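Continuing the batch. This is chain 6 of the set; chains 1 through 5 are on the previous pages. Same settings as before, nothing changed between runs. Recording input and output for traceability.
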Amino acid sequence: MPDATLRSPHGTAGGRSTRFFSRSPDETLRFGRAIGRLARAGDVFALYGQLGSGKTHLVKGIAAGAGFRFEREVTSPSFVLVHEYRGRLPIYHFDAYRLRSGTQLFDIGCDEFFYGDGISIVEWADRVQEALPDGRLDIELRHAGESASLARRPCPPAGGQASWRTMLLTPRGARYEEILRALRKPCSKAKRLLQGRPGSEA
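Output for chain 6:
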């Protein structure tokens, strides 16, 4: 079980952060599905990470876990601000890559999405930080090479660390601490991910 005491760079009012390791895009998808199965109306997932860090794969998994059957149709909205998918509840997928501030999210009434009848997933959340609700689950994805603690791990499986990702989860509110506890459980669907005991964030 992870035993992390990391700090997320995206705000200060969060609970204890926990880092999970993914060895492949398929594992990132599976981890997303585990999150999606736990999701319920009003949940907000804020995703951080550079291009190619695995954000869209994680979104695909969350959408599938929340009941959206057409996983391959999940793509970054890019030229529109939000895509809606229909699973067991609505899934609102925001892409803030082209935004300069949260004002543009406020302009489309983001609160109606965040506090409505579905779940919201925001890619490039750092660009719209001021528009995000206080209660949310922050998920920061990184390439393996950006994590000093991963570099100290034993020799990785075939394919090398280039295909590895780290996912730092920071719960902001009791609801998201509940989700993170479920993901930490040994019986969780996330068990197949490598879970380390990082000491400090790179």
